Structure formats: C-alpha cells, structure tokens
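sry for the spam today, last one i promise. struct tokens for design, 209 residues
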C-alpha cells in the first residue's frame, strides 16, 4: 500500500512539472517576436502622430506667414519704423502701433480705414507739406484751383470773396478797365476801398492767371 502511494506521488510530481513547462512554452510561442500587441499599437500611434506632424508643419508655416504683414510707417508719426501687424488690419491700427500722429500731422491726405497690404508704406504728411502739395496740384491743373481769378471774374463771382460786397466788386472791375489786368494779387490793394486788412482776409481766396 505504501509503495502504491509512493508511485502515485511520483506520477503527480512529473505531471505537475511537465504541465508547467508546457504552459511556459505555449506562452513563449504565443508572444510576438517584435513585442506585445500593446507595444506595437503604441509604436504605430507614435509613427502616425509624427507623420501627421510632418505633413502639417509646412501648412502651419504657410499659415503663419499669411497671418502677419510688414508695413513701413514714416512722416509725422511719433515712432516711425517698420511694424509687424496682423493681416487684415487697417491704417489706423498701424498708426496706433507707431505711437499715433504728431500735432503737425495732416490726416486729410490718408484714408485711415484702408486695408493694409504686405510691404506697404504709409506716409503721414505735415499740414505744411499737405498745403504745398495742394498748391502744386492747383498750379499743374487750374481746374482744381477754386480760387477766384481777379483778372477774369465778374461782379457776382467777386462778391463771393470775404469782405467784398457790390461796391468793392464794382471798384475792382473799374480798376481793371482803367489799368488793365492785375500783375499780382497784392496789386488788389490799389483798388479803392480795399486796404491791407481786407486783403489779408481774402488773399488765400484769389489768384491771377
């Protein structure tokens, strides 16, 4: 009886040993040579993310270039220079970046609502410069000059001048008939009833041609 028990214990030990070895072999045969399924999935995910990042990089750089433009601001502004500003911005916004305009600036020659473009130059003229430009344009094209030509104007047109009523307008016409055309605007002070004080009020409204 004891001998039978001994034999049974030996058989049980052999079976347990063989079973563990077989299970270990099965586990080893079932494992992929390149790593577990989770590791493979992680590797594929990293590869995919890197690929997508590489594909998106040129698009991001192109988008970044499109979002910013460079504008040169000069003239009567507090801080002239080249400014980087977001695309789609307007003139008044880049003027704010430049510290605003000076007290001498003339904003009549610039449209502050204009859209900015890359490489654009914004020049703010002073009031003096704007006046000189306007005068030059008027000299080049008389049609743009709304001043009264005292050598050609009739009585009604002369009466539109500051300080010139019917009497003084008639005096101007009489002077022209007697002395001929005016050789200068200052000669208007030779007309009866028009002295220096009156001339100072209307000198910017008259011209000769």
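last one done:
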């Amino acid at each position: 009886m004891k001998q039978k028990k001994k034999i049974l214990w030996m058989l049980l030990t052999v079976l347990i040993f063989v079973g563990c070895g077989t299970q270990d072999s099965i586990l080893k045969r079932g494992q992929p040579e390149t790593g577990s399924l989770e590791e493979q999935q992680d590797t594929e995910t990293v590869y995919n993310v890197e690929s997508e990042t590489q594909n998106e990089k040129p698009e991001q750089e192109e988008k970044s270039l499109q979002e910013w433009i460079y504008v040169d601001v000069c003239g009567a502004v507090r801080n002239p220079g080249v400014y980087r500003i977001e695309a789609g911005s307007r003139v008044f916004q880049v003027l704010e970046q430049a510290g605003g305009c000076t007290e001498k600036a003339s904003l009549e020659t610039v449209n502050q609502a204009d859209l900015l473009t890359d490489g654009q130059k914004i020049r703010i003229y002073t009031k003096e410069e704007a006046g000189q430009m306007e005068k030059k344009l008027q000299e080049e094209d008389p049609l743009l000059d709304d001043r009264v030509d005292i050598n050609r104007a009739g009585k009604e047109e002369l009466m539109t001048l500051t300080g010139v009523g019917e009497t003084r307008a008639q005096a101007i016409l009489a002077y022209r008939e007697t002395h001929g055309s005016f050789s200068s605007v200052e000669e208007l002070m030779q007309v009866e009833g028009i002295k220096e004080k009156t001339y100072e009020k209307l000198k910017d409204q008259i011209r000769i041609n």
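The helical segments are 2-30, 37-67, 91-97, 127-140, 155-158, 166-179, 196-202. ok im logging off now
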